[in-house]
Amino acid sequence: MASLQRIRNHGALLIAIVGLAMLAFILGDFLNSGSSFFNRSRENVGVVEGQKIHYTEYEAAKDQLTEVYKIESGRSDFDEDTYSQIRNQVWNMFVMDYTLRAQAEEIGMDITADELTELCVGKNIHQILRGRRAFQDENGQYSRETVKSLISAINEDGEDAAQNANLQQAKTYWMYWEKAVRISYMQEKYTSLFQHLIKANSLDAEFAFNGRQNGVSAEYVMQPYYTVADSLVKVNEGDIKALYKQHKEQYKQTPNRAIKYIAFDIVPSEDDFKAAQELLVRLQDEFKTTEDVSLVVNTNSDIMYDGRDYSEETVPAQFKEFAFAKDAKAGDCTDILFENNTYAMARIMQAGYSLPDSVELKAIAAEEGQEDQELGWFKAADLPKNIAEPALKGKRGDKFKVAMGMGEQEYEILEIGKPTPKVKLAILAREVTPSSKTYSTIYNSAKQFVVNNNNAEALEAAAQAAGMTVVPQYNLTATTDKVGQLKASRPIIRWAFEAKEGQVSDVFECGQQFVVAALTEVNDGEYRPLEAVRAELTYEATNNAKAAYIIKQLKGVESIEAAAEIMKQPVQHVERVALGDSRFGNAGMEPAVIGAAIAQGENALSEPIKGNMGVFVVKTGAANNLEAAFDAQSEKTQLASRYAYLPYQAMQLLEDKADVTDNRANFQ
Questions:
Q1: How far apart, in whole angstroms, are the C-alpha atoms of residue 92 and residue 99?
Q2: Cα dist. 629→53, 146, 201, 213 in Å?
Q3: Residues 6+ apart with CB under 8 A from 125
Q4: Which range, of 286-290, 294-298, 375-379, 595-599, averages the lowest pLDDT?
Q5: From CA 459, how far away is CA 447, in angstroms rounded?
Q6: Which residue has the higher pLDDT, 588 or 14?
Q7: Quick count: other Cβ atoms within 10 Å of Cβ 308?
Q8: 64 near 87, Cβ under 8 Å?
Q9: Band (618; pLDDT cuts 50, 70, 90)
Q10: Can you name the residues that pair with 531 across neighbouring β-strands?
Q11: What does the pLDDT read at residue 163?
């Protein structure tokens, strides 16, 4: 009973403890079972106007656009810059798509299925599709039938795996351009709303006309700000802070970093040159005499022997004279040559024969109902060997088949170029490249540099003392793809957003360079800090103070001549100034001066006017008006052309103001 009473006495405490324990249990269970929820949120590449872009969706869009690039270019070996372009293009497409969707939903705008069909296969084909070669006929015209056949084919199953793969690639290609048409047309519909809303009325037309027609002649004197010594004016911290507050919206920024880096070039050592040369010396006799030259070459050379036919245009320049000499014959061999960091020697395998350099081909349709396709002219170097060999050794009208995946493709030779001298050449070449030992030596030097100079100031000082170039890079954002022109340098940017200001990085391998970076600036605020823009603000504040100084000197001046004497500047003449002008005489862009001159009317002397480049005093003369009939419609048309950019500016503003969260940096 006593125990029971103690429990009653501490009941509230026990209930609280049990409650906390149960809450911890429930939360723990939720966090464990709901971890996928949190993971999903971390897997979002971004959010645009409330629409989440999942990593898999983003990757699928990148893969899709990569396939489009492959089909459009006929290549698959894209460089780092192209992949960067693909990533940015995909992201911009997501932003545009979801931003437009949000606006369209708000105003009740949409693109119907019928509209999209009309744009793709109807009478009003969208310009995006018209420019695609894949959708054009042999005359370069957009072919609705080709597109209809494509759409029909991609919605059916192929006969085998190879055909299914081709259909999937075609579907990927088509779906991308269909989406591009939808987004582009949505943008066109949205901007057209502005074009119909932004109109010039009769008052606008009359004001614009009068602004050009009505003017005055003028004399003026201007004292440039640079003629006033800085020592004559005083600028304090309050002036600079006031200007910073005034211009603050101009200083909005995306969080960014600034770094300085040094690079250690990964270049071959003397031992690497010696090793490459010694290899060719060891192989020289065997290369000259062996009957199985392909084994020797393909085991040791940077240039594989595949029996290709070289012409005078395609043979490496250093072997041209040797290969096409009058007495050149099979078995002839050069000495070891050195050029462009490469040791090389060549042996003639066949000489004294001729073959065409080019051929015109047609692909024969594989099935009935399909049309043959004229492919055009090809040079030997542009064709795969299995196509080039039968094509260039055949004659006009010959047909031949080539294995393609799990099937065959038949070609017909439509025309063949004029035969030119050819030679088969085996080339044994070794470019001198850094060995693993050289890599290690250079890497260790870079690593030791970091150890000895572990802060930004020490790194820069030591680099300069060693005669190394210290390269600054500014405004690196979390999604910047690379540092300047450094290859594979995205890891440096990731490091910069994790490091502390003044910190020195480890050694990064960027192509053929080892790079060490120092983080010099961390800018995470919504606006650029005052210190970052102090120089330009000080310049503006100084000019403001000089303007006040000059204006004070001119107090009470009653004539243009008196103003010129005080300012020690000549009086200049303007034949005519009108409100519609963009420039004031020889003084350049001075809108405040133009406005003041027109406002004061004829035969009047202005007060001192603060301009862009200096202080002005203007004396207007007689009216100098143009005589022309007012044409309201013409004026409205001119104004409409000036307003033409506004809808597109509105689109840019729409993107700038969109609610966008960009998490791409977490996935790059």
A1: 10
A2: 58, 56, 18, 10
A3: 119, 142, 144
A4: 375-379
A5: 12
A6: 588
A7: 16
A8: no
A9: very high
A10: none
A11: 77
Q: Which run of H or of E encompasses 90? A: helix 80-107
Q: Is 506 exposed, middle or buried (0-12, 13-18, 19+ CB in 10 A)?
A: exposed
The verdict on domain 256-267+434-523 having CATH code 3.10.50 is: yes
Sign of the C-alpha dihedral computed for residues 180, 186, 190 and 193 taken in this order: positive
- pLDDT for 460 equals 95
The closest alpha carbon to 352, from 371, 368, 366, 332, belongs to: 332
Question: Which two three-digit tokens encode residue 553?
Answer: 């000197």
Least Cα distance to 533 among 281, 252, 166 occurs for 252
H or E segment and range at residue 475: strand 471-477
Asked if residue 578 lies in contact with residue 215, where contact means CB atoms within 8 angstroms, the answer is yes
Asked if 218 contacts 577 with a C-beta cutoff of 8 angstroms, the reply is yes
CA distances from 420 to 36, 87, 311 (A): 67, 45, 7
Tell me if 321 sits within 8 A of 340, measured CB to CB: no
- CATH topology agreement for domains 215-252+531-623 and 256-267+434-523: yes
**Which is nearest to 149 in space by CA: 164, 129, 139, 135?**
135
Quote the strand ranges of 508-663, DSSP E: 508-510, 513-523, 572-578, 609-610, 614-623, 660-662
Contact present, 570 and 563 (Cβ < 8 Å)? no
Neighbouring residues of 502: CB distance < 8 A, sequence distance ≥ 6: 455, 456, 457, 518, 519, 520
**Are the C-beta atoms of 254 and 527 separated by less than 8 Å?**
no
Position 38 confidence tier, pLDDT thresholds 50, 70, 90:
very low
pLDDT winner (highest mean) among 39-43, 143-147, 598-602: 598-602
DSSP conformational letter for 481: -
With contact defined as beta carbons under 8 Å apart, do 231 and 542 qualify?
Answer: no
Helix (H) or strand (E) holding 581, with range, is none
Q: Sort strands 407-416 and 572-578 into parallel, antiparallel or unpaired.
A: unpaired
Fold of the CATH domain 215-252+531-623: Chitinase A; domain 3 (3.10.50)
Whether the Cβ atoms of residue 514 and residue 491 lie closer than 8 Å to each other = no
Torsion sign (Cα): 661, 666, 667, 668: positive
pLDDT of residue 74: 80
**pLDDT above 70 coverage of the chain, percent:** 93
Instruction: Determine the 3-state secondary structure of 631 from DSSP.
Output: coil
Give the position of tokens 């003028």. 218
C-alpha–C-alpha distance, residues 493 and 266, integer Å: 21
Please state, as a whole number, how many other Cβ atoms lie within 10 Å of the Cβ of residue 138: 10
604-608 long-range contacts, Cβ below 8 Å, gap at least 24? 605/558, 605/559, 605/560, 608/550, 608/551, 608/554, 608/557, 608/563
Helices 144-154 and 161-197 pack at an angle, to 10 degrees, of 120
> What distance in Å separates the CA atoms of residue 149 and residue 146, rounded to the nearest whole number?
5
Strand order from edge to edge, sheet including 399-404: 373-379, 358-364, 407-416, 399-404
The answer to whether the beta carbons of residues 460 and 260 sit under 8 Å apart is: yes
Q: How confident is the model over 404-426, as a mean pLDDT?
A: 87
CB 586, CB 219: distance < 8 Å? no
What whole-number distance in Å separates Cα of residue 153 and Cα of residue 163?
11
Distance, CA of 584 to CA of 128 (rounded, Å): 44
Q: What are the structural domain ranges in the chain?
A: 2-33, 45-196, 215-252+531-623, 256-267+434-523, 270-431
